[in-house]
Specification:
- The chain is built from eight helices and 13 strands.
- The protein folds into two domains: 46 residues; 318 residues.
- It is globular.
- It is an alpha+beta fold and 378 residues long.
């Protein structure tokens, strides 16, 4: 009897499968109509995805407890900040359109108001108008958000165009999701410049907020922390200052009809045209998962060991995801300032941003990494 290595046999069979798939694709490209060609190619890609052990279809993702991915998003944001003496007032508004891997689309409206104070010092040397200044700002924030879900992107775009022009359009349709949050922010900057020609310096900021999100019978308590790392920026005419690395951490606890449902921890790092997001979700409907989470959430009684137990429970019984997005941003606007006994400054910015999903990997209940081709395209 001749012995055959099962590992070698598997490799040979996989190579054969690739060759057959290539032959099918080549044949379909020259012999079949375009619509049929695309369906054949999709079927072959799904078959290869299945052989690789990845997440290939939306139904597989749903069975594993994975939510649909946001495959792309576009946003338009307006920021206005006024400094009068030591008082800072700000208003921020944003519209966003997000497309999901399940074919649905979500339109989001965000608003934020700031009130706080600034403390700064500055020096100016004449006649060259060379100046230097340092500033620290502390603000209290209020955030309000609404989101509307649509079955497809076309309906979402139609609603977005109408709602951006006419507030009564969005008021006439009840939002599917609503959330409110309160928080605080702090920022520090040290800048030097020559007249209004060149400005350079170091900038850093941080924000924290706690809020409540409502989605039908579900309620989610959210804590969010965001930090802009200290970074050097040079602002030249026609070339706005580059942003530094942004880091954020979010914790969500969701319950439905009084019963705990899910715990989600998220972290994100952005910079250089890319954002990496990690999320870890634990189903709290499982009594064992809920018991581990409750030990950590018990006020005044939790220990570092409880935190380690929760992390291990998420790793072995939850789902961890890593999403990579390519991002781009365009800024337009103006800023003016003056000092006549007291300082006055006004800044207005319009920010257009786009993000596109380029990588998605998941680890389910301690298993190996699996790519989410249901989001990337099988």
């Amino acid at each position: 009897m001749r012995y055959r290595d099962p590992c070698g046999q598997g490799a040979v069979e996989y190579v054969a499968l690739l060759l057959v798939a290539g032959a099918v694709l080549a044949l379909s490209a020259v012999a079949l109509p375009a619509g049929i060609t695309e369906r054949v190619a999709a079927a072959v890609r799904t078959g290869l995805c299945t052989v690789g052990g990845d997440v290939c279809r939306g139904s597989e993702a749903a069975a594993a407890g994975l939510a649909p991915c946001v495959t792309s998003a576009r946003s338009e944001r307006q920021d206005t900040t006024a400094d009068i003496a030591v008082v800072r007032l700000g208003g921020h508004g944003e519209w966003q359109l997000a497309l999901r891997s399940d074919g649905q689309a979500v339109v989001t409206r965000l608003a934020q108001g700031d009130v706080g104070g600034t403390i700064g010092v500055g020096l100016t040397f004449s006649p060259a108008s060379i100046g230097a200044e340092a500033e620290v700002a502390l603000v209290a924030e209020y955030r309000d958000g609404q989101a509307w879900r649509f079955a497809d992107a076309r309906r979402a775009r139609e609603f977005l165009r109408a709602a951006m022009r006419d507030a009564s359009v969005r008021e006439a349709r009840e939002p599917d999701v609503r959330w409110r949050a309160a928080g605080a922010g702090a920022g520090a900057a040290a800048l030097a410049g020559i007249a209004e020609l060149v400005r350079a310096g170091v900038d850093a900021s941080t924000e924290a907020a706690i809020g409540l999100r409502s989605d039908g019978d579900r309620r989610t308590l959210t804590f969010d922390l965001q930090v802009d790392d200290p970074h050097f920026a040079a602002d030249l005419p026609g070339s706005p200052a580059a942003a530094g690395t942004q880091r954020s951490w979010t914790a969500d606890v969701t319950w439905e009809r009084g019963a705990a449902r899910e715990l989600v921890l998220r972290t994100a790092t952005g910079g250089g045209g890319r954002v990496e997001e990690y999320s870890a979700a634990l189903d709290l409907r499982d009594p064992a998962n809920l018991a581990v989470a409750r030990r950590l959430l018990a006020p005044g009684r939790s220990t570092p060991a409880d935190l380690r137990a929760l992390v291990e429970r998420i790793r072995t019984a939850g789902a961890i995801e890593r999403d990579g997005y390519a991002v781009s941003e365009r800024r337009r606007g103006f800023s003016v300032g003056a000092r006549l006994g007291v300082g006055f400054g006004l800044e207005h910015r319009r920010i257009s941003a786009e993000r596109r999903l380029v990588d998605a990997v998941t680890w389910i209940r301690g298993g190996p990494p699996r790519r989410r081709f249901d989001c990337l395209g099988a």
